[in-house]
What we know:
B: alpha+beta; Cytochrome-c3 Hydrogenase, chain B; C: 4-stranded parallel sheet; 4 strands
Amino acid sequence: MRGVLGGFLQTLKSFLTKPVTRLYPYEKPPLEARFMGAPSLLWDDAVDEVVCVACNICARSCPDDCITLTGDKYTDGKTNKKNIIKDYFIDLGRCSYCGICVEVCPFDANEMSPHFELSTYDRMTLVYDKDQLIEIGRGVTRRTGKPEPVGPLPGILDPSTYR
Amino acid sequence: MAIATSIDMLREPVPSVAEERNLETVEMTINMGPQHPSTHGVFRMVLTLEGERVKNVQSHIGYLHRGAEKLGESGDLEGYRKAMITLDRTDYLSSLLNEHAYVMAVEKLAGISVPERAEYIRVILGEITRINSHCMFYGAFGADAGATTPYMYAFALREEIQQLFEAVGGARMFPNYYRAGGLREDVPQDFVRRVQAIVDRALYAFDDFDNLITANEIFLSRTRGLGILDQTRALDLGVSGPLLRATGLPYDVRRSEPYSIYDRFAFDVPIGTTGDCYERYLIRLEEMRQSIRIIEQALKDLPAGPTMGNAPKALRPPKGEAYVRIENSRGDFGVYLVSDGKSSAPYRVKYRSPCFVNLQSLNDMVIGTYIADAVVALGSIDIVLGEVDR
Amino acid sequence: MGVNLGAPTPFATAYANATAPDLPLNDGAAGMLPAENLYARLPQGIVTTSVDQLFQWARKSSLWPMTFGLACCAIEMISTFMAKHDLDRFGLIGQVGATPRQSDLMIVSGTVTTKMAPAVRVLWEQMPEPKWVISMGGCATCGGPYYRYPTVVQGVDQVIPVDVYIGGCPPRPEALMHGILKLQEKIMRQAKEGRRPTADLELVLAGEGVEVA
Amino acid sequence: MTNNAASELTLQAVPSWMPAFLVAPMIGGLSLADLIALVVLLLFVLNFVMIEIWMERKVAGHIQLRRGPLHVGPHGSLQSPADVLKLLTKEDLTPVAADPIVFPMAPYLVFVPVFLTFLVIPWGPLVLFGNFVIRPFDLGLVYMVAIPAMQGIGLVMAGWSSGNKYSLLGSARVVAQLISYELPMVIALLGVAMMAESLNLTTIVESQMKQGWNVFLQPIGFLVFFLATMSEMSRAPFDIAVAESEIVGGPFVEYSGMRWGMFYLAEFAAVCLNSALSTALFLGGWELFPGSRALGLGWISDQFGLLFFMGKMIVLVLIIQWARFALPRLRIDQLMDFAWKFLLPAGFVNFILTAILQVFGFVPFAIGIGLTLAFAAVLLATYQARRSPSTVALIRTAAAAAVPTSQGVGLPV
């Protein structure tokens, strides 16, 4: 009898406490600084072009193989990079939002954006192209507190991986 | 459609009218799952019933077999990191605990040392994950017994914990935060304060959990004396975790073979006496409190310093094998890794999942009980199908 | 490419503000993101003009889900039904739709394997019309991290037609709610456009491998 | 049935300003006023059920730390209309395995008895309108026991004809439950009938105004009746018939659209009905508070009785809803045990005590109450003593005592 009454009292107590509900469409979720939404490409405002050099490390490191990119010879001469991306696609439907692509990028060219409202009527629209990835990355800055590279990085910076 | 008919073929034939005329009880086969409110995912039980009594139970698994181990062995670059994506999603309720086991295995394989701070943070986050997972158990178990409110209570706490995971690792469920040699990055500045807030909130919530159903007579009558598993049988089956401890054996990997820095903390291993569903429930509730004890001690001693050891960014461990076991929230979780010494991905990945082993005790628990009890007994095993099927 | 990609929308800049002001309900004014604006655009209450719209309003306001929890996403889906997010606010009641016969919406959350696919199909066929399907998360959308594994179906739309896809692994509860709001918008649009479109098989197949020239 | 008495009472209840053609009996003794009353009653039941469902979802929400329906209409008030509209336009499936005749019939057989029972409820007076009661049968108590019992047939039909094993199990459970709980309910009602010396519900309410409310005179009877009716309408914690976590939806598994809506309607109408009956039989019907007549405040109840009746009814509905979200579900054998080993003896004790009160007066009744309480205390004490020590304490002590095993106990990997 005591336990049953205890259940009644506990529910009465919670009935009288304030609900914890967050009214989503009207209230934004408090996204943490490290929240990993869709991956995005960063834009270098100083030289007004994309940071990426099309080294393909992100695509090869992606556990879901959701990144596809093609590079092009870089001819503008604004920076000393050799290549620049022509096309860059990420299938956000397949992406597992793990952040590995950001972690392995040696040029800090991408970052996980806070963009998470990824509902569509057509799953092909979840394949984001270069422009969209730059767009969702606008305003996103490279996060501080990234682990500093420790020691040599064998293998990764092999010039043969550049295209 | 061809695939649609294949499930029809699995259905048992309905007993004939002639059999019914004999006024004998006719066995009925009932197909519970793969989609049923209380099979905890895509588990399927084929119950043979005599009235309401369960005469036999046949379990079917494999509805979520998606190659977590095999996919961990692939990848031309960063293979050791890629394996963690699927590992996180095997036991999707205790992801950080499993990551701990995995990175320990990689560290053992490659001979990497881990800084103190990283070890402490791993313990803190691991114990929070344990609370998170047991919360899910609490809610689901309450729902199995027919109470809807426990779920809500449990998830109110889970939301706070997931918010912490998001702050620390960037994702609510699968932060993918541990790395061989330490952590991906240091915890945020206000980590200690936030964990302390969760500890306070959790202690408050556990009392609510207790008040709601622990002493409830209906709940007691539903779970007490049900699904008894004695110690010998449990050991024969290889059962571990709260199921084994409910039989009275204080076996906890954190104590029996202390890994990481668990030998530095004072905590109790709750054990039961009879090994019924109620004791499993109580043990899990008590374990949450013990986790809080560990977290509080670890927070007090949390040292400053680096969180990443001297690990190469692209791992290529020497040829060899490593097996590491930890106590995850369901029992003895093991990771077995083989490296061929050449590639940057493990040659072989194998997980010893406690759920899969614990699930074998289902028949011992369920046969001879009522249908309603079968659901409760299954809930007390606390399976995660991602880990059963892998 | 040959694939039509919609115009991107600027989200990130708006989220740069850590704390948003408390917005009044139904306020579609400045400061709100286009996506959040979405709900405000939907008709509130019975101010609809035709009977058809009235019925569609009823349907979108009372989407009883068949909670098809398959894997990890199921946990986030349960989270969405629970206290913090509370889908009951929109009329999605979690306690009734245990059986497909009484549900309108199937939320496929998790990896669909070849062993599970027939059951998904059967349960979808058992649901009475009108019915809708939400594919939640990467696995249900196109196989997700497991797309390489032979037992995994490359998206639930190979088995049943899907109305709304939600990316994420798993999607946040807010992302699921956003998907449901998108679905409600779609339902309201169906009041004007007639019956629901069938799945475009070519589109589905094209989703399997994006050929980049 | 005493037709004359019934029609006389009806005429008494009809206010004097009503024109004669309205109250003149037509076909089957039904007057136009009766027909209007029926329609009004049906509308009332349907609307009350919608409000009740909304209320339940709100109550559930706030108990569970959330908000409940919020965005469909102000505070979700249009949620139930939306649900009904949707159910109306939903496809009406009849499974292949289902019986084509019985399957569509079952929902009506479940809803109609519940609705019919509303006929005898004495709702109480309201200014100008007189006393609201559609048919004040002299055998009202028998009627209200007999008619809802027909529900069981409908549920069995639903469960059997669906061609689904879950629904078959559910309907088997329903039958067992209905048969078991009918008995304590009737026994509890015997005490009520004895106190009022009548089977007419209006008379019972009026007698309570004279003698005091039955809930104070026979609290055991009230408890037995309330719990038994709660079980009869399959409400938690007695909802084994629809137990969602075990047999998915019981007899209603295969029903869709408005057919299922009828079951849902019947369930919530039954909650309303049983709250109304409990109010009329035990809580003094439309009286404001016990003893108001002695204080000279009887006129309030005579003028606005309907409102008080509704108020009491809603409080009971809330309690029933509260129980649903506070308690786990019983198992079938425990449910049967509860009916036969607790409610039935308790009903008999109440019967005997009431008989003592009626025959021997208040003093022996008080002694009887005292004896019963003492006996109950002894029973409870022995029950507590027989129970093993609390497992909670056991786990706590074991936790403190547990020592680390030196090395693993050799678990197979």
